[in-house]
Specification:
binds iron/sulfur cluster; 365 residues
Length: 365
């Protein structure tokens, strides 16, 4: 990734270049307001870490939407996994999930109470554990958007050990974007998620751009990527255009990774899903197809649909996830809610808007 000691990404991180594009944003907006939403924890990290919001002209705003899969996982599902862990099964999941408060408890609390909760880097780790301990039941709590769902699909498709099943809470981003647009959320355009787009491709947003008249820009994660994405949306808005621009061509194709999508569609089917703090979004969830019922923890353990649930008392994560407030707008931010004592999920996950804002609070004005 380097040439002559310089990373090929160096221009994308060149602050002077980014500031030059920010000045172009100022010129292109011509004083007109433009509210842009992104739906990706890594974009939020890039924007906050590089201090991009502070470079934007007045009136041009980038807000974070529901781009953190852990943050939108219903508390009732966390409780169901905690019950299994305390009931004799080993529950495997990603480290980000363990401290997220459910309705009654968290997986960390279940572990402290003697429950068997194990952190893994991916389902392959969980499969290895299940093979090593054939006398124990394993449940993998499988979370993520289109980025992680294909790997889960491939593992399930290959066949899991008999003592293992999967609880899928995978979710899809375009239906969530459509839900927000239908609900009349005030945004002028979207920065589409980079990682998700590598799987589903830039064309996946065409219907949203044309159907709702909103510019959609697929952008990478370097500061220049994001600032160019902002400039493109501002330009489209000023020109009265609403189309999909793929500005992350070094990683995202128009059609995406068709093999990954095929694997996902072979194993999962779409279902309505609850997004914590937001509500039920039609066709936004992935559940295992009937052919894979033997691998489905929801079937094996009779886990029914969890009721819609909100956030812990006083927590503004619902508004943060909808871009209505920035974390500092929550009365608990940095007071009773900090990374070491999180109240809401957005302060737990590394992709959570509040945990990112807290970590880089010195960069914000
Ligand atoms: S600061 Fe804490 S309580 Fe407030 S919205 Fe963020 S995570 Fe929720």
């Amino acid at each position: 990734m380097s040439a002559g000691g310089k990373s090929i990404l160096s221009p994308f991180r060149d602050r002077a270049l980014v500031e030059r594009v920010a000045r172009e944003v100022r010129g292109a907006s011509n004083g007109e307001a433009c509210r842009i939403m992104h739906v990706c924890g890594t974009h939020e990290w890039a924007i906050t870490h590089a201090g991009l919001r502070e470079m934007l002209p007045e009136g041009v705003e980038v807000v974070a939407g529901p781009g953190c899969p852990v943050c939108v996982t219903p508390g009732g599902e966390i409780d169901a996994m905690a019950d299994l862990a305390c009931g004799g099964a080993a529950v495997t999941t990603f480290g980000d999930v363990v401290r997220v408060p459910g309705r009654k408890t968290s997986l960390a609390e279940a572990k402290a109470d003697g429950g068997d909760v194990r952190v893994v880097y991916g389902m392959a780790d969980a499969i290895r554990m299940a093979r090593r301990e054939p006398g124990k039941g394993f449940v993998h709590f499988s979370i993520g958007f289109e980025t992680t769902a294909p790997m889960a699909a491939i593992e399930v498709g290959r066949g899991l050990p008999a003592n293992m099943s999967v609880f899928s809470t995978h979710k899809l981003i375009p239906p969530a974007m459509e839900f927000l647009l239908r609900a009349g959320i005030e945004v002028d355009g979207f920065i589409c998620p980079g990682h998700v787009s590598t799987i589903i491709g830039a064309d996946a947003y065409r219907g949203l751009a044309e159907g709702y008249g909103k510019p959609m820009v697929v952008a990478g994660f370097e500061p220049l990527d994001v600032m160019l994405g902002v400039l493109e949306i501002v330009r489209q808005k000023r020109a009265g255009i609403a189309t999909v621009s793929n500005m992350y061509g070094r990683a995202v194709s128009q059609r995406g990774n068709e093999l990954a999508v095929e694997a996902m569609e072979m194993v999962f089917e779409r279902a309505d899903a609850e997004w914590r703090g937001i509500g039920r979004i039609p066709g936004s969830g992935l559940r295992l197809r009937r052919e894979y019922a033997g691998s489905d923890a929801a079937v094996r353990f009779g886990i029914g649909e969890v009721p819609a649930d909100g956030m812990p008392a006083g927590c503004g994560c619902g508004d943060v996830l909808l871009g209505r407030i920035r974390p500092e707008g929550c009365a608990l931010f940095g007071r009773s809610c900090r990374p070491e004592s999180p109240v809401g999920p957005c302060m737990v996950s590394l992709e959570g808007t509040c945990s990112i804002a807290y970590k880089y609070r010195d960069k914000m004005q």
